[in-house]
Model the fold of this input.
Amino acid sequence: MSPPLDAVRQYLQDHADRNVGDLCEFLKIPSISADSKYRGDVRRAAEWVRDQLAACGCDVELVETAGHPIVFGSICQQPNAPTVLVYGHYDVQPPDPLDKWQTPPFEPDIRDGHVYARGATDDKGQMLTHVKSVQAWKNAVGDLPVNVKFVIEGEEEVGSNNLEIFLEEQRDRCSCDIAVVSDTAQYGPGIPAITYGLRGIVACEVTLTGPRQDLHSGVFGGSIANPVNALCSLIGKLVDDEGLIQIPGFYDDVLPLTDEERQAFDELPFNEQDYLGNLGMSAVFGETGYTTLERRWARPTCDVNGIIGGYTGEGPKTIVPSFATAKISCRLVPNQDAEQVVQSLEQFLRDNCLPGLELSFTSWHGCEAVLCDTSSSHMAAAQAAIETAFGKAPVMIREGGSIPVVATFKKVLNVDTLLLGWGQNTDNLHSPNEKFSLEAFHQGTLASACLWHELVQHHSL
Amino acid sequence: MSPPLDAVRQYLQDHADRNVGDLCEFLKIPSISADSKYRGDVRRAAEWVRDQLAACGCDVELVETAGHPIVFGSICQQPNAPTVLVYGHYDVQPPDPLDKWQTPPFEPDIRDGHVYARGATDDKGQMLTHVKSVQAWKNAVGDLPVNVKFVIEGEEEVGSNNLEIFLEEQRDRCSCDIAVVSDTAQYGPGIPAITYGLRGIVACEVTLTGPRQDLHSGVFGGSIANPVNALCSLIGKLVDDEGLIQIPGFYDDVLPLTDEERQAFDELPFNEQDYLGNLGMSAVFGETGYTTLERRWARPTCDVNGIIGGYTGEGPKTIVPSFATAKISCRLVPNQDAEQVVQSLEQFLRDNCLPGLELSFTSWHGCEAVLCDTSSSHMAAAQAAIETAFGKAPVMIREGGSIPVVATFKKVLNVDTLLLGWGQNTDNLHSPNEKFSLEAFHQGTLASACLWHELVQHHSL
Done:
């Protein structure tokens, strides 16, 4: 390590307890963005972040939005160094069901080397690592080697409705070379990872309406299209028994996995029996010709998320239902166009609908998949930083879920994002007893501190 | 007409008002079998029927069952004449929603030539025609030309759970040459009909269970079978786009319509545009090669009656649901074996289920289709009776619904049933403002009186 980084490392070691204390203070604020009765607490969390950033020497502002405020902070004193935008969120999921928590969700409890609280890993704990690394550089060295901007929002758990507006409006202020987000996970315990790909998503609802009321299935059955049968038939046609999606053109733009990626995925530890055991299922199923990791991370899907129609109470009721409705979503992979997929899906449904029924279709705002350049200097810097902090080179993984902000950064700011997750998938995100390993908290903070250093090193190469 | 029948007709004319008065008295009793708080009223209705039959000179008994009592009455004084078993029910559907009734459901109101009340046509009014015709013969002539037995139950609206037990136990007491049921309808206003065929039914519920809880569709989607997609796929495979059911062997035993039947159906007045207009639909759909009446009356079906799975609230929720469940019923046609159909259906579902899912299947008691001999002397007697009473020969129709008691009479007593409906499909059965035409009530009573006469005439032929 370079001498300044040594000083930073020493500072972090010396202030480890204080950092944990600050994290616990932050976790005590019930900043539940979904519930308006916590509006005051949400603002209090924003102010807490503002004050932390100010204490690091950042210029800070609470930017008002139509919803909860965005904390914008910056420390930009290196005109020749790269500029990093750190994104995170200070809001948390509702803690329900409360009776499943071993200790109260907003009274952080430290046990077994973890802090237990709502938001511990998602995202207060992970986000704070970057604040604490900036603070360490500032206090131990006097200045940062890079320029850092913070965009910490309070609406991630309710759809980030005002973030894109903010970025569009303050594009210049947010300009940067690379974004950093710590809101994913390591691949597993002791296996640090960088996530370089995300799936996108489109979601819609389709309703088939037949007779204006439920009909007697004896008197009328057989003479008109049954909306439930017809909807099932449509959905049945969407995916064949080999797991291939049948919408014309659906795979046309799909970027195939490279041989290198497939080999790298194959080399990751993955036990299918354990995977199934955790889910309580007896077999995997998916697109023919792909492994389970490939299916989850890099192949598109077409899943029904919910369906309802007709009589769903106890016992039989012999009716032809009046209508049926289903929610359908597709996970997208790189190069697929979200809008195009929604259009093809709607067209497929209309083309295959039985006569006499009315089809209505609505879709929600989607987002496209993300694939980051794994050969960039930023990526190399992140790999080096993680190897230093965790003592092990990160594995390069993709993730099946979607983080819309990453596509937004690409679109609005034209930058890639480094997805650096310090948590674990078993940290009970969105569930009772959410936790975050204190070791990961400290390692993540150190990795962040190293990242500022490495970005400069790799920038000048 | 023969002189005795002339006397009966005269008697019925003279006592028309009294008969309507008795009907209204009967309709005032809220004999709602589904609701235990009306248990006393249900019994009161049974006693009312008992007293009516006793007043006609019948031997009567209230036979206790595990549920509501069965009224058994008989007047058997003609050892050489045929014996008729009249079946009907004194219980009624619940009257909800009460606020949709123009006049209260148990305060019979006469307007526009109809009596409005719950049970007016289903089945108090229709059933009473046979009691009143016996009374007319008894009082006007002194004796009946045939032997008549009445089996009037109080549980038709809740599944007739104790009727078959009663018939099995009292098989000898119920022995007869022909059964008569007036619980169907005329083909239309001014078009009296005899229903000679009924569809049967089987009903089941199938549930597919996947992961032990709903999963994140990003993290897991694509790697396991989605229970909703899989259930839709199964259901989609049950019926093809030509309306043909794909269960192996499903049509093997189906008795085809004869050319004569198809021609007779074609000659019935039927306006498809009116039919669709009433349903609020834009097109018919059904098995290729059959007309709408044929599809409704004489071809089997496979209808989903209800389906549910996953998230069905507002907006999107991107999950892979844990399970999905559907209720499926098949209407059966003559010669199909209900048990065999259920077995084939279950086998088809199991054979086509995606890997990794658990399939559970339950079925409810079904009943087979009925086809009565249209060339029997009893049928000829009924045709003649209706022609005399209504001034018009009845059309011969089938019905798409199921009346399990008809199959039970065939099985237990080995007799056909004459389905002689005096009501109309527009009489609001099971709906608010149920009604029964007084003209149909009088015509039906006369037709019943004529039937006793004609059965003897055709018996001796």
Residues 3-198+369-460 of chain A form a domain with the Aminopeptidase fold (CATH 3.40.630.10). The radius of gyration of chain A is 24 Å. The longest strand of chain A covers residues 200-209. Chain A has a mean pLDDT of 96.
